[in-house]
Amino acid sequence: MHKFLIYIMTIISLFIPIVSYSANDAPIKTQKEVVSNAIPENHKSKIEIKIEAMENECMEKNQTQAGMNNCAGQTFEAWDKALNDVYGKLMKKLDKQGRLALKNAQREWLKYRDSHFIFLETYYEKFDGSMYVGMRIQDKTEIIRDRTLILQSLLLLTEL
Length: 160
Prior knowledge:
Elements: H1 2-14, H2 31-36, H3 46-61, H4 65-93, H5 96-124, H6 131-158
């Protein structure tokens, strides 16, 4: 979802003239310079930055479809581990009532995750080609990633 928003913002920005002047009448910034700074890295969580860096490094080394599928699998595993870590840390920060509520919410979310994973398996089995393996894994990863970031934001709130 995050990558999709960046993509849309980039496309939209190509149709909007962007002009920027400094107090010293500096040259006009190019659209590329402005767009690349549209979403600063510091708006991403440390987990997100770390996993994206790991994924990018893996993808650079593995240019074949099988290699990219392997990288997608490693990214999925990294987000799954991060989810478990964040969940455990958040549980330790909550009182008894909060822990019970989070545990129940997580059980319900796991039911959703599992049923959506079944849907993805059914959906992608209709397509031939190894690239669809990676697409399926990426779709599953997005579900885990989103849940991790939600719990991470709650954890950060408890630390204020």
